[in-house]
DNA sequence: CCAAAAGTGTTTTCCATACACCCATGG
DNA sequence: CCATGGGTGTATGGAAAACACTTTTGG
């Protein structure tokens, strides 16, 4: 195993797959493309592409993110490695090892990308049908991780524009967790955590309609939340599980290795009413 | 990017690297090999090897784990994907993308592997010198993850033999976190968390010497800890950071992409007194 | 004036901490 | 009988959940 030989191994293709999320219209939405080519033609799939010889997977992911979203500047967006998927049969054509990334965007991104031939669409996460390859599992893994990271990191601000109200931040939590939070307590918790958010010197802003204008905040310098902001009890280990949050789709299944054991509980939109 | 062509890309080698930890003699120890070949010859490195054409990275990691530890049965050991390292220059010879895994072993594993030519050794994590390639960073990432996961998962039992005492479990926490815990409170917390540990019907056991015999426990079915078992405040965000836990070595650096902003705080062994 | 959303205050409950203390064993 | 480690009990402080209440806007 120490003897390197460029031809001792079959060529592996290395790609990146992107699970790009945003919160809009009170729903968690995902950026998906529709495949044209044959393996899974017509199916929805995660955006992605090859890692070029001179770039890291991280660089490739950010490049693809720019191409697929059509955004000019993606340097400020949250992009984070999820994990790597390497099952030998995950692509029927050849051996493809894919490094999956999760990206988080604030609400107002361009609805569809323009860089590529395959058009990308924002679709609500709940009620998605099966995806191409093992992308359903990748997406489910990404979604689970986001929900978990909201508990103990300041990640939620990545879903918000540069300046936001605490109400918007709370909506991010409520949308991702699928549970209502007590506003006074949420407020206290966020403000008590040093470096989570910081007030903007400017004045207050209307919320778009009736209601008292809300103060504006910026994301702070902190990345971790100590102590964490806990939700009820998502990982119901075994019995007696009154499921709450939308356990949305369970497309290309496979059992997660770490296993939260809490599988889907279809209570969102029972059948798929997607493109409306 | 949709047009597949087996020759459109330069061949990537895909490998696995293993960060294998154990707790022995009150210290966190790591399994390392000493390189014979030239790039970084004589340097310590993580065990690892190529992913074979027909296997997944996970399978390759478990195979390497068996080879390097010399253990006959590694099926019960905790093995978990850490992340993938893909910087173009991480191996001077060619393009190597490496999927890193973290493995946790109970105390009494064979001290060194026998499968491979390169002999593996257990070495205390604190006070290590620089490692080959970017393995120093990989190891640091793995170590950080372990410390964090002890807080909100039942991972600690992976460091323990099939049957263990609460004192042993507590020692795992204290060793990994580098902080003393209050025994009565630790005990209550662990026993109050359903599914963390379960008592063994058999009788009590001596602790090896003086002291009251301790009850034996087994790992339970739960994977997550709700609520978590928090330590003091590891990620000091920016200013005014009275560092506590040993920020051990910071070998082959590079700035982490996700960045906890809290970089190493050399207070363990001030300078590097490595190979002693 | 009413609805809706922001923001403040208060009470209650629970949990983590910090101890004091008893039990069982080896020397 | 004393040191050592296992195990139990208990008081106290602080934070989180629950909820009543005021403020400020638009219709």
UniProtKB/TrEMBL annotation, chains A, B:
Cited InterPro entries: NUDIX_hydrolase-like_dom_sf, NUDIX_hydrolase_CS, NUDIX_hydrolase_dom, WH-like_DNA-bd_sf, WH_DNA-bd_sf, WHD_NrtR
Keywords: Hydrolase
Compositionally biased region (Low complexity): 241-276
Pfam family, one: WHD_NrtR
Record GO terms (molecular function): hydrolase activity
Keyword Hydrolase: yes
UniProt entry tagged with the keyword Acyltransferase: no
Domain of life: Bacteria
Chain spans, region Disordered: 226-276
Domain Nudix hydrolase: 11-146
Protein name from the UniProt record: NUDIX hydrolase
């Amino acid at each position: 195993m120490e003897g390197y030989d460029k031809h001792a191994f079959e060529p592996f293709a290395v790609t990146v797959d992107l699970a790009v999320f945003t919160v809009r219209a009170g729903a968690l939405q995902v950026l998906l493309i529709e495949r044209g080519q044959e393996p899974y033609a017509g199916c929805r799939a995660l955006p992605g592409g090859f890692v070029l010889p001179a770039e890291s997977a991280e660089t490739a992911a950010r490049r693809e993110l720019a191409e697929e979203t059509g955004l000019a500047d993606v340097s400020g967006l949250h992009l984070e490695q999820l994990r790597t998927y390497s099952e030998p049969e995950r692509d029927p054509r050849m051996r493809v090892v894919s490094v999956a990334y999760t990206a988080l965007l604030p609400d107002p991104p361009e609805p569809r990308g323009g860089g590529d031939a395959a058009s990308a669409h924002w679709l609500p996460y709940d009620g998605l049908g099966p995806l191409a390859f093992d992308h359903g599992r990748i997406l489910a893994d990404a979604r689970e991780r986001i929900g978990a990271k909201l508990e103990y990191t300041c990640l939620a601000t990545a879903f918000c524009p540069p300046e936001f109200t605490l109400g918007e931040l709370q909506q991010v939590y409520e949308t991702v967790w699928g549970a209502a939070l007590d506003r006074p307590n949420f407020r206290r918790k966020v403000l008590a955590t040093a470096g989570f958010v910081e007030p903007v010197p400017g004045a207050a802003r209307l919320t778009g309609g009736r209601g008292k204008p809300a103060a504006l905040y910026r994301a702070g310098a902190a990345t971790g939340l100590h102590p964490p902001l806990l939700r009820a009890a998502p990982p119901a280990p075994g019995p007696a599980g009154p499921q709450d949050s939308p356990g949305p789709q369970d497309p290309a299944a496979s059992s997660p290795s770490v296993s939260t054991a809490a599988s889907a509980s279809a209570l969102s939109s029972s059948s798929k009413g997607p493109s409306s």
